[in-house]
Amino acid sequence: MSQSSEFRFTFLSHDHNIDLSSAHLTAEDMGLPSDIAIECKLQTLRGGKQQGSKLITLTVGDKVLRVIPTRAMAILDASRGELRYGWDSPITEVVHPSFINQEASGGLGWLDGFNEMLVRCGYQWAGHPGEDNGDMLTLHGRIQNTPADEVVLTVEQFPPYRVTLSGRVDEKRFKFTNFEVHTELSLTPDEPYIHIQDTLTNLSNYDNTYQAIYHNNFGAPLLEEGASLHVAATQISPFNDYAVNGVHEWGQLSAPTENFDEMVFNVLPIADEEGMSHALMKNAAGDAAIEVSWAQNTLPVLTLWKNTDTIEQGYVVGIEPGTSFAYNRKHQWNLGLVPTIKGKASKVFKVRFGLLTDSESVDASVARIDALQLTPTLVSNNPLVAL
Amino acid sequence: MSQSSEFRFTFLSHDHNIDLSSAHLTAEDMGLPSDIAIECKLQTLRGGKQQGSKLITLTVGDKVLRVIPTRAMAILDASRGELRYGWDSPITEVVHPSFINQEASGGLGWLDGFNEMLVRCGYQWAGHPGEDNGDMLTLHGRIQNTPADEVVLTVEQFPPYRVTLSGRVDEKRFKFTNFEVHTELSLTPDEPYIHIQDTLTNLSNYDNTYQAIYHNNFGAPLLEEGASLHVAATQISPFNDYAVNGVHEWGQLSAPTENFDEMVFNVLPIADEEGMSHALMKNAAGDAAIEVSWAQNTLPVLTLWKNTDTIEQGYVVGIEPGTSFAYNRKHQWNLGLVPTIKGKASKVFKVRFGLLTDSESVDASVARIDALQLTPTLVSNNPLVAL
Amino acid sequence: MSQSSEFRFTFLSHDHNIDLSSAHLTAEDMGLPSDIAIECKLQTLRGGKQQGSKLITLTVGDKVLRVIPTRAMAILDASRGELRYGWDSPITEVVHPSFINQEASGGLGWLDGFNEMLVRCGYQWAGHPGEDNGDMLTLHGRIQNTPADEVVLTVEQFPPYRVTLSGRVDEKRFKFTNFEVHTELSLTPDEPYIHIQDTLTNLSNYDNTYQAIYHNNFGAPLLEEGASLHVAATQISPFNDYAVNGVHEWGQLSAPTENFDEMVFNVLPIADEEGMSHALMKNAAGDAAIEVSWAQNTLPVLTLWKNTDTIEQGYVVGIEPGTSFAYNRKHQWNLGLVPTIKGKASKVFKVRFGLLTDSESVDASVARIDALQLTPTLVSNNPLVAL
Hints:
Three copies of one chain form a homotrimer.
Chain A: E1 6-13, E2 18-19, E3 23-25, E4 38-44, E5 54-60, E6 63-68, E7 74-80, E8 83-85, H1 104-107, E9 118-123, E10 130-132, E11 135-137, E12 149-156, E13 163-173, E14 177-187, E15 193-202, E16 208-209, E17 211-218, E18 228-231, E19 233-238, H2 241-244, E20 263-269, E21 276-282, E22 289-295, E23 301-307, H3 311-314, E24 316-322, E25 340-341, E26 346-356, H4 359-372, E27 378-379
Parallel strand pairs in A: 19-27
Antiparallel strand pairs in A: 1-2, 1-12, 3-4, 4-5, 5-6, 6-7, 7-8, 9-17, 10-11, 12-13, 13-14, 14-15, 15-26, 16-25, 17-24, 18-21, 19-20, 20-23, 21-22, 22-26, 23-24
């Protein structure tokens, strides 16, 4: 029906003076055959610290994503068929950034809104709070508590009917930071994948340092006793002294465990021929998994965050590719993990989520990861950094 | 007319996707006989730092309350007949929390919005700002600058036609705090009382410490030269060295006094047979008073805050039952005033305001308080804490 | 047609319960002859950190101003005919104050929204961040990140058809600050001037200190290689050691220069017979200029801020009359530049912008400035303050 090859719909745009508080688009609205399972809704949340938060629910085939434009285009959660990917944080509200004070309690205010499946950390800095070279760095940087502009849905009008949701997020401070991030997520009805492609542009003509961590978080039902992690890696080491005790069991996941708190492992991953690294968490039965893949050229290291404490504390595992580990930036200069972005240059970050819901695809993914592991992973007992 | 025994109306609810910006409910709207003096209005405030603040004006009999859902269901002020209860703060706006930075100026940002009759302090901490065990605690905690959700009016359809206004306020920080507060205020047309019943629930399965101070504030016309305070207490002591000079006149109130600033007294109150403690401030003529009563089991101590400086500075007296005194938390561990709330447990705080507008009821209240004072109050010259 | 001598229109008023999200007033709407070039639009901005920002576009004769009620009535930019006055900050959004955390990064969060032609700094303090007498002062004070109330347009119904836009901004902290600022800008179709008249009132009955800097910023096309600054001054000195190198060329302006960063000069200006001081920046051809004039009684000193770095960094010059220089307040007590405002007293600040767009008026202004310079300016090599 449509003469255009692409349907385009703008939810929010300063430039075009568009700001929808609710919307509902069916496949037919998008010019697609009505039997194509693509649908998109926008709603504005109300009450408590959700007041003014926007939520986009995007259905593409058997996958449903919930995306938060007001929180830098984070993915709140995803599902494929019956299986939900994401986690249950004690933070149940989709907190609007105007209620977050990242400076609170020594830089921990970021934790007041932390509950998504995909959380971006960065881009001027990421990692734990604290002072570095006279800069007070708050936990995981500023981007996640920044609302997006230019929130646009595009849908290809021909198979495989790729659906793309994009938004622009600015991270700017006069004289210090002049970053613009073009975020993009895309998926098709038939594939199990969500593709993230973010482009960080340094609009300044001066070089600047940057950091990025894609804090991807997955809880139950995937996470359970007997679930396991699979990564091809040259080295895995404990983040701190506490994690030393668990480093040799880094791949084994436990039932919710009182007083476990969190164990964090630093991973040096191996990439495949296309430059992609992969990590997978599968359930105990091995018939469902999340496969996280990423382009290693800009995200060279991986943090595994085992937060398998009680359900109430937020029973969750993080699979977090990054430019850097989760240490405060001051510890990462020596590790070579504070990269530079040239003036006027861009960096592209690619992350792909495979929502695997049958044994065959889980086994195949594990096999591909195993095939990359030509020599055994060096499992170190020593943290890279003495905290 | 109504077949239900209770009228229920929701002003704000994330769960039910309700967010009214204005409303007006008459007794008839509530299914009541039209001669019952019950009425409720909601308005959204605009301009300056009031932008987005909500205000509920609730008329019940001869009492009118103004309640602020966007500030944790605070009571801005109340009146009974001609008499207004509350005070005139130099802060005249009902400040929306998104304009408050509690970390400002060493943790004093809370003061930018302080103007209500009933202000909740807590619940992770309360008291003066400063560091305790590495935590930077801002003045009087976070709850007051948190907007409520699930703001609901219920009205019983039979005498005494109890009217209840409730709201839920979350105070959460991943890994640190997982508190939910169900606030409730209720009153009837015929009684002079406003009943507050707040339930703090620790949703974590871990124990946590907490603090609460009900910072109830009353100015003119009740407060005037010759007005007086009445409390049954085992001990009254000065908060600090400055208050030593006024501790023996703790019950006497002055006209607005330049350079008085504030004198604060720490009180160990006596409870009645039902476990309620009482404090009263009456005017000079003794024909009007505020009676504050509270359940001592969860609010064991009382702070009296005499801020009888000039009108412009906010001429006001605080009658503040709490788990704790107004010191920074670091000073209260040794006093045993940093209680613990068990994982999954709840604490209920009950405070009752008696709006007394005739000599008989004032005298009767004073007599009840006096009757609790079996032995003289020990008036100490020594602050409990050396600041 | 109108029987009143003044047209009055309220865009925002708590007291009158008015909050327009858009408006468009023509000359006829204002009761003026339709050939009078006066027009006013209000819009609400959306997307990113602009969400909720208001912008008023005011056309008066050949001048167009854009004013931001949500940022203390700042002037975003102005134009006269083809010539735009203002600058291109890397901050492109009109950032809503709810997204600004002034405490961020040691008090630098103000920089996240800095992009206007007229930025008010103050009024409890202004200048660089840092601690003074135990107070943590954030960069340039709080007023600019405070939304206005009582935003009112008035238009005289007779020649010269003076148009006035006013707003009230509160800066209040219980026990510390009780300031109210009545801002007013006015202009007529025929004159090249924008008149600013701000009245700061100390509502407290106690004296307080205050500071104000009118951070007026101008970039290209006026600013260019060969542009120059003209001020009648008794003394000009470098702000810091870096500025020593440029102090003798204080009046000469460069093309955008990599790594120039900023040079700041402290100026003691000379006033004319009417108590007005004047500074002018003209373009290389001398046929366009901005003339900044101010009442010296309340704004005794002038800061010249040469930020002639690259375009991308924000190529801009500040002409900033103030009570004080840009140092942290702790350095200004000894300079006598921390004035006192008496309890219940007001201070009036007058600033006038001359938008000069032809050689004659530029030359005339330079001549008036030169005529004030009876003896040579003392150009000092020594900063007033050792930083």
